[in-house]
Amino acid sequence: MAASTSIVVISAGLGVPSSSRLLADQISVAVERLGRATGLDPAVTVLELRDLAVDIANNFVTGYAAPDLAEAIAAVGGADAIVAVTPVFSASYSGLFKSFIDVLEPRSLEGKPVLLGATGGTARHSLVLDLAMRPLFSYLRTRTVPTGVFAAPTDWGKGTDGGQAAGLTARIERAATELVRELAAARPAAAGAPGAQALPSVATRPEDKSFEELLADLTAPRR
Length: 223
Hints:
Helix content: 40-55%
Distance between the termini: 52 Å
CATH class: Alpha Beta
CATH architecture: 3-Layer(aba) Sandwich
Structural class: alpha/beta
Shape: globular
Strand content: 15-25%
Order of helices and strands: EHEHHEEHEHEEHHH
Largest sheet: 7 strands, mixed
CATH topology: Rossmann fold
CATH superfamily: Flavodoxin domain
Number of helices: 8
């Protein structure tokens, strides 16, 4: 039997319930479903950083990781992929999120596929994905997937036309597909397992096309 694929989900939400945890859960469900469809055997572990906050702070002043924190650090080091979700504080990732990243073993994230997610009070904070989180994980030499997932309060609304909620679902599906592609590429045998299905294309939306492709669509003769 093939070994399972370890996916660690880092959620830095502080509230209960937390929108960051809600987003993390939706992403992990999509990754697990798509992973199984491609012949992988995903094993998802969720790290709720609010439960580790005191241990993280103590680690900075003592240099000692308490058992629960040590277990979390080991889980990240042994993961095949990471889903990292943080709330936005002062136009960046939260202090708790960054503190956890700082106590990880040096190079423990190097080469790992990472899916970035964030939540905030307004859609204007979505830039945190590219201006704060992506540079951080690039410094850590991870392989961040192209699509990050940001959720503002309006994204959780349920409209009769699908509106905002449908947009969030589409972003989650796209990002999850990209992460699973990274995992499948690292496990070529799994992709050919019985019952495995090909992942849907992730380059079908108009905004994903190059200028030349868009121009060709406009100038193509109509039938």
